[in-house]
Amino acid sequence: YQAIKKIGDDSYNGYEALLRWRHPTEGIISPAAFLHVLEDSGLIASVTHQLLTEITNLLKEASNKIDTISVNLSGKLIRDSEFMTSLVNRIEHLDPPPEHLCLEITEDCLAEHITGVSSVLNRLRELGVKIALDDFGPGYSSLEYLNQLAFDLIKIDKTFVEAIGTDALTAGLVDSIIDMAKRLELRIIAEGVETREQAEYLRERGVDYGQGWYFSKARPAAELMAFIEQFNRG
To answer: Which of 17, 20, 22, 74 is CA-nearest to residue 46?
Structure first.
């Protein structure tokens, strides 16, 4: 779990659940190396439900000390009507309330399936779930999806954030994304914030939240609870 910090003060908006494989000999392995195996084998649905169970238990344990936990939804699952129906049914009976859950979706998940996806995502929002458009910026169709779907947040792709201070053109694109998001009344999360310079640049432009190693490393659940308790003690 990696903290999502409010830029400009010491509060944390929530945390993103990051899936990792604890390999017995290779150590911690990124999903880039195994996610396609889960999808191709059909295991991705059960793993996602298992992750949602862990998130639910963590939110109960945290006793309202966590505002939101975000989780990425696989493109294959977004296009799986059976899974999405089961997800809606599960969230309808979720305890704690669904407003503590945020589903992050990348635009490549939406390609060619926008019509079928929109009704399900709108239903999830009606239940209180927050919906975020992840990795916003590099894809040509991001603006199209913002027009067609009602998102709560956009997450500026880390490749754009990395360019702050080194690439004036890309930094200008970041400014345009921020301005557009504000006009659409969307909250903004900047991914991959690694330096004080990046954080200050984003703060000056009114970005709501930042995520990256500058603010907090990713932690397993047990360490996360200790981190939250320490933070709450001040």
So the answer is: 74
Our CA angle for 166, 32, 25, nearest 5°, is 115
- Check if the beta carbon of residue 77 is closer than 8 Å to that of residue 52: no
Give the CB-side neighbour count of residue 222, counting CA atoms within 13 A: 0
**Which pTM was predicted?**
0.90
pLDDT along the chain (234 residues), means of 10: 89 89 92 92 94 91 86 88 91 88 83 71 91 78 69 91 88 89 92 95 94 92 83 59
SS3 152: coil
What is the spatial distance between Cα 61 and Cα 169, in angstroms, rounded to a whole number? 45
**E strands along 107-185, which residues?**
130-136, 153-156
The stretches of the chain forming alpha helices (DSSP H) are 35-41, 44-62, 75-78, 81-92, 107-110, 114-126, 142-148, 158-162, 168-183, 196-204, 221-233
Token digits of residue 13: 């908006």
**What tokens were used for 157?**
């792709």
Going by C-alpha positions, the residue among 222, 221, 223, 216 that lies closest to residue 12 is 216
CB 127 within 8 A of CB 91: yes
Residues in the chain: 234
Question: Residue 191 CB: number of other CB atoms within 10 A?
Answer: 23
CA 41 vs CA 19, 106, 154, 194, 208: distances in Å: 17, 21, 30, 35, 38
Nearest to 73 by CA among 95, 58, 93, 88: 88
